Amino acid sequence: MSRMSLLRGRAPSDTWAGAVRVVALHRPVQVSLGSEGKHETKGTRMIGFEISIDGQKACTAGVGDLGVVSAIASWVRRVSRDPSSGTPIPGQFEEELTFHVGGLAHDADGAGVNVSWLDQSLNVGQRITLTVVDTTQVNRPRTRHREDPALVEHQKREYYERLKREYGDV
Fold it and tell me: What is the pLDDT of residue 113?
């Protein structure tokens, strides 16, 4: 897809981050829970990720106008640890191969909402396909965890106080 077709019908604002050009697409979107487990955007289009695993559609993920959507394939190998003591077990390892599709959306009051469509173990040889789509409908996230604004404010204050102790009150 060309850059022009991606920008079709949207008002871009360009910024530069290092040597990478960042184009922000501004589009009004109101997301509401529709029928059949779909989020509908009342005819307004958004960028989404259509995910297939081994040729089978897994989900279409998107958050509307403001937010984050990510798809992450991870492989981890670490030393096994004794469950009771937590000490490493020489020569023993644990391995994980996983795929996650999630993001951050916002409720009407501005509170952040962590959303997740897919958390799955993978096997060597599986094929993951991510297609960037321009759509009005995405699947309902499987999990949704709303941030507690009071807790977020408390954590920000703790972080600020820690930085003040570390660097002084400049």
Answer: 93
In a domain, 36, yes or no: yes
3-class DSSP state for residue 6? Answer: helix
- Could you tell me the pLDDT band of residue 6, with boundaries at 50, 70 and 90? very low
Contact partners, residue 110, CB within 8 Å, separation at least 6? none
Query: How many whole angstroms separate alpha carbon 47 and alpha carbon 133?
Result: 6
Determine the length of the chain: 170
Residue 132 in any domain: the answer is: yes
Domain span at 60? 31-167
pTM of the model: 0.67
* Closest by CA position to 74, among listed 47, 101, 113, 114: 101
Q: Is residue 5 part of a domain?
A: no
pLDDT of residue 74 exceeding 70, the answer is yes
* Mean pLDDT of the region 100-117: 92
Residue 9 lies in a domain: no
